[in-house]
Design a protein that fits this description.
The chain is an alpha/beta fold and 339 residues long. It has 12 helices and 12 strands. A hairpin with a 4-residue loop joins strand 5 and strand 6 (127-128).
């Protein structure tokens, strides 16, 4: 059969009359994509059933979706989104399904259109689509603003998406280099007690930034960039006194900066450069009584033209679903402790 899109005339959707209809029927025109769409042993369908509280019965290239009206419509939107992804030759992983579910909106009168690849971040290794509404807003901020703050718990993609945007900007010739930095504040250890020279001391601490780079760029390009200086990874202290021109600069773990360090970093912004500042305000490792530079900067710079802010929450966590529940449990415990 000829491949045809699920999002337009290519899909044939029929539901029983009335908003409270018990079933919604879908038919797919390209049987070759069904294995990718349904997953091994229909595991993708099972995940959608579990998350949305619907029952999905597949027969050939047809699906019957049963459940509450709003849940059926969300399932329809999710399937449309995943089919469009499969049609583009992109793989479908459980995280992509979770993302499509987050991007859907419940309610008979407020069903969001199926996500497309508009606004996607395209790197040399992959095309990255948003997996939550806040991720979509954050990716838009990274495109539109010269300085972007991304705050929220671990696993929301704030650092990964910033690194991906930097990689895309470098590959596209928008900037000449990438500079990735972190404050050298440890959670329980001190760099001076680690063996080796300065590079050997800081490299393990900066490892998450390396991991993100290798995920969005081929290893040979990362290695060459690190050698030639088009990719630089350094502790925040190394930024003092510099003017960073034509660069995409990322400050990770920014909650562990002091106000003085944050001001120093932000004023490094040079001509043709962009900055992304990421951090988790709930994970401050500074000594007691020291104000977080991230919290102060967000307060001081609120409303300043040219600055974008995206605040992620536990609903945006795109790692294993259990991570979100763990973060929520810790947040609840912290609230009880304060009370």
């Amino acid at each position: 059969m000829t491949a045809r899109s699920m999002t337009g005339a290519a899909s044939r959707l029929a539901s029983s009359p009335g908003p409270q209809a018990e079933s919604l029927n879908l038919a797919f025109d390209d049987n070759r994509l069904l294995a990718l769409l349904f997953g091994k042993h229909d595991e993708h369908l099972a995940l959608i059933e579990n998350r949305l509280g619907v029952d999905i019965n597949a027969r050939g290239n047809r699906l019957a979706v049963r459940g509450e009206a709003s849940a059926r419509e969300r399932a329809k939107q999710v399937m449309e989104s995943l089919y469009a992804r499969a049609k583009k030759g992109l793989e479908i992983m459980p995280g992509d399904i979770e993302g499509a579910i987050r991007m859907s909106r419940a309610g008979d009168d407020a069903i969001a259109p199926a996500p497309t690849d508009d606004g996607a971040i395209r790197t040399l290794r992959k095309t990255i689509l948003p997996r939550s509404p806040n991720q979509r807003a954050y990716m838009e901020n990274l495109r539109r603003h010269e300085l972007v703050f991304g705050t929220g718990p671990a696993g929301t993609g704030k650092t990964y998406l910033a690194v991906a945007a930097a990689a895309a900007a470098l590959s596209g010739g928008e900037v000449d280099r990438i500079i990735l930095s972190r404050p050298a504040v440890e959670a329980g250890e001190r760099l001076g007690f680690l063996p080796g020279d300065m590079k050997e001391k800081v490299d393990p601490y900066l490892r998450p930034l390396y991991d993100a780079l290798y995920d969005v760029l081929p290893a040979n390009i990362v290695a060459r960039g690190l050698t030639e200086g088009t990719i630089e990874i350094a502790p925040l202290a190394f930024m003092r006194g510099r003017t960073l021109k034509s660069a995409f600069v990322i400050l990770d773990e920014a909650q562990n900066t002091t106000p003085q360090q944050m001001k120093m970093f932000l004023t490094r912004l040079g001509e043709g450069s962009r900055m992304a500042v990421t951090g988790d305000p709930s994970q401050v490792d500074l000594p007691n009584g020291v104000t977080s530079g991230l919290a102060e900067a967000i307060s001081v710079l609120d409303g300043v033209k040219g600055i974008g802010l995206t605040a992620f929450g536990t609903a945006d966590i795109v790692r294993h679903p259990l991570v979100g529940r763990i973060v929520e449990a810790y947040d609840a415990a912290a609230r009880r402790s304060k009370a």
